[in-house]
Amino acid sequence: MKNKDKPPELQPFFDKNIAGDVVPSIGISMPRIDAYAKVTGRERYAADYYGFDMIWAGVKRAGIPHARLKSVNTQAAENLPGVIAVLTHKNISGSNRQGVIRKDQPVLVDDKVRHCGDAVALVLAEDKETLAKAIKLTSADFEPLPGVFTTETALEENAPLVHEDHPGGNVLLKASLEIGSVQSAKEHCDVLVEACFETPLVEHAYLETEAGWAQLKEDGKLEIVASTQTPFRDRMEVADALGLEPERIRMIAPYAGGAFGGKDGVTVQSLLGLAALHANGRPVKMWWSREESFIAGTKRHAARMYYRLGAKADGSLHSLDTRLYFDTGPYDHLGGVVITLALEHSGGPYRIPNVSFKGWAVYTNNPIGGAFRGFGVAQVTAAMEQMMDMLAEKLAMDPLKLRLKNAVRKGDKNCVGVTLTHSTGLVECLEAVARHPLWTERAAWKSKAGPFKRRGAGIVALMHASGYGPVVPDVANAKVELTAEGKIKVYCGVVDMGQGNAATNLQIAGSILCQNVDRIELILPDTDRTLPSGSASASRCTYTFGNALIGACETLKLRILQRAADLLMVDDCDETALIPGAVRHLPTGREIPLHRLATFMNESERTATQRFRAPTAKEIPPVGNEIRLHGFPHTLFSYGAHLVRVEVNELTGVVDVKRYLSVSDCGKIINPHVYEQQIQGAIAQGIGYALSEEVQVNEGKVLTADLATFIIPAASDVPEIESQPVEIYEPSGPYGLKGVGEIATNGPLPAIANAVADACGVRIFRSPLTPSRVLRALRERLSEGGVH
Amino acid sequence: MKRIIQMTVNGEPVELAIEPNRTLLQVLREDLELTGTKHGCGLGDCGACTVILDGAPVNSCLVLAVQANGREVLTIEGLEENGDLHPIQKAFVEKGAIQCGFCTSGMILSAKALLDHNPRPSEIDIRTAISGNLCRCTGYQKIVEAIQAASETMAGSGGDAR
Question: For the segment A635-648, what is each residue's pLDDT rounded down to a tens digit?
Fold first, then answer.
């Protein structure tokens, strides 16, 4: 069992149990190719490498939220036997700065500590025990500075500055948009509803914490294997931060053990690269502990959102005024992009003629706000969809009918002024919910609540944009190869962090090239082997890469058929067809095996590539260039409608989610299993967001740095989820598909909040809806003399 | 000072000299290279490191390797028989119960421990049995379906002797 001398295996494992005779086709549930290696424990994640002669690297974290760094004391650690190096910012010859838009995060702190998780020193040791001791022995002298821990205090005039050199002070980015006039429109509204919502800081809690390993190869190449969503961008970031030529760096991204946005951008990569440069060619491994992942990893932005919604007496929305404050922590990461997407979605999937939206991404000394499935949309949907129910109540209108009345349809302008030119299936989703027994029979179900129980049903309407918006090119480059052995290699440019896009790539290639599963090999993202294809994020993976892959496969198919026609000496390649392992001339039945055909073709002939760039909105809404750069606006949206039934225990305040229905317009479906996985998993995450998940922070220090105090749903907390697709063909998508990765995350919080309000007549403006908050709301209602 | 321990891992006898403060999880992953057993938290909260120790599921991060001395350990690598997937593994593949896969090993071993003791569990039995195994990807539904399907297959074939 023990064999440490062999080099770590980089290829994904393929099992002989694979149903090799299956030729994939589109629209069927076929088992994911990655499932076989995962189910046997053979798949090797970035965390699973224990190479020969391996060194462990770890980080000394600041542990103080805001301070000037005076010195780092490395001597005691360096003197410890088994310690190889203790590195500080002085060992970095590059910019020592990381960031996707604004490069404001140091690899190792040089001037200032800006949050507790900042890395102060990097320690390399022979084993983990020595590493832990050496990290303890490393210390730093700080000059503590007053910190800013709420967006309110950060925006005060004389607030301490997180970045003294930032022209906007503590405002990383302010985004705003005005259409029509909310001021004059208000006078024409029959009803106005106002509220302020607060949503919490949330941890991704992927099972595989941030991990990877790196090695400086003999040829001078720095090889980094990491659990990441963004290998191509990582390479540029690491190169810039460490002062290396990008070509010197090879990033490899195996299947990730979950990511959800938390691995969108560098985590261990630059640190590992730096460590490998000081490891005498030995492989170096880094794997953050769960606590470290909580403290140093990015989070879903905590948000405070002020809403004022006005409508006519007939329920038509007339004006919406929002102010969004997102706590982005000390670094941009993707905070500017998150607030911009939040702004774009802050009015929901409705027609509203007069809007004034303002959003601030605010620097603080709290943990880093960043990308998290939903990407700002989860927050604003929580607010807007509760506003819709509050409005319905005030109008004494059915909340579903109110949504249907205002729902966007294809050809409408949405509330940020973009004409919807792609498939727009919101009405179909809402109508499916309206017909469903969970909705039509809710009154009878509610009336059967037992003693001290209250039952309620809640609905929401959803939309979620796909891709990067108008400026940053949303591009994928696919490559597919007929190997010399006559097999097909698919070079996947986009990471599979668990969502199943690698298996979908195999399904697409197998279907076009008519090859069975065991004749196809996937090459996972690797900057030396696969082509740049953007991030695994933004509900774009299969939409963008799938389109490129279809093109590459069609090109290769034509070339194979043409060359086969030549060799078979027939005129027309239309009479030839690919079959598993061969090309057949249909009129005569003659065949040429692919492995033989391949010997007649040189490498460049056996390879096809294709680029795809996602479409962008052609209209230019009234926003500044800065906001466009951050991704505003989008043109392609997925839609959905959710329904939840809850039972509230009046004695304990516990909200029990009984049933969940999701109807989604994410275009046509390539693999129904993978589609359902995305919906069901996102809803479970959303239920956690609604009811239990909250990273508690005091003066910048995380108080809930483990999975015993930060509670994510377990199997017993998640109800039966019914997922119905509304399969509307989207002409720009691969086989008519749109993105499904994020949209369902946005539904559960407002749906559950609406259901709790329906059950008990209380609305809780601060989430999660923990038992104590629910109980408090119930008591307040009682003391107000309210009768339910 | 190192201690000599003997245990049976996936049916094979193993003898190791190890530091007494090392966990079973560390020894499995680092010494025996059985990296199918995952480390998710190291605190017994997530269940990713679940293995079966003398027939009972345990968080191997909370068991010292010396405590496994003289005992039998089953990890995910030991579940296949003659190259065939165990019915639970097969059901996980076929029902789409796997996404990122990092919880899968522990989840399957908790399911096996359940089905070994309760061959026809209800949905609530299943959800309770795996409630110590956190999954952040699937929403659990397909995992529950897979365990239900496996229980039917295994009951149909007269149960699983292992």
Answer: 999 999 999 999 99
Q: Answer yes or no: is pLDDT of A210 > 90.
A: yes
The residues with which A515 forms a beta bridge, in sequence order, are none
Q: How is domain A55-145+210-287 classified at the CATH fold level?
A: Aldehyde Oxidoreductase; domain 3 (3.90.1170)
- The reported pTM is 0.96
Asked if A208 lies within 8 A of B100 by C-beta distance, the reply is yes
Interface of B with A in 18-57 (CB under 8 A): 29-43, 45-46, 48
Q: Which class is domain A299-469+619-783?
A: alpha beta
- DSSP 3-state assignment of A52? coil
**Nearest Cα to A442, choosing from A396, A398, A478?**
A398
Instruction: Kindly report the CATH class assigned to A475-613.
Output: alpha beta
DSSP type of residue B27: I
For chain A, say whether B106 makes contact (Cβ under 8 Å). no
Nearest residue, CB atoms, B30 vs list A50, A207, A677 = A50
Does residue A3 surpass a pLDDT of 70? no
Say whether A682 and B139 touch across the interface (CB within 8 A).
Answer: yes
What's the complex ipTM? 0.97
The nearest CA of chain A is from the CA of B159 a distance in Å of 20
Question: In this structure, what are the phi and psi dihedrals at residue A365, rounded to the nearest 5 degrees?
Answer: -100, 25
Confidence of residue A11 (pLDDT cuts 50, 70, 90): very low
pLDDT digits (tens, 9 = 90+) for B2-56: 999 999 999 999 999 999 999 999 999 999 999 999 999 999 999 999 999 999 9
Segment B122-133 shows an average pLDDT of 98
Please indicate if any CB of chain B lies within 8 Å of the CB of A204. Answer: yes
Measured CA to CA, the distance from residue A723 to residue A252 in angstroms comes to 35
Contact A38 B140 (CB under 8 A): no
- Domains of chain B (ranges, CATH numbers): 3-78 (3.10.20.30), 87-156 (1.10.150.120)
Domain spans in chain A, listed from the N-terminal domain onward: 55-145+210-287, 299-469+619-783, 475-613
CA contacts within 13 A on the Cβ side of A289:
17
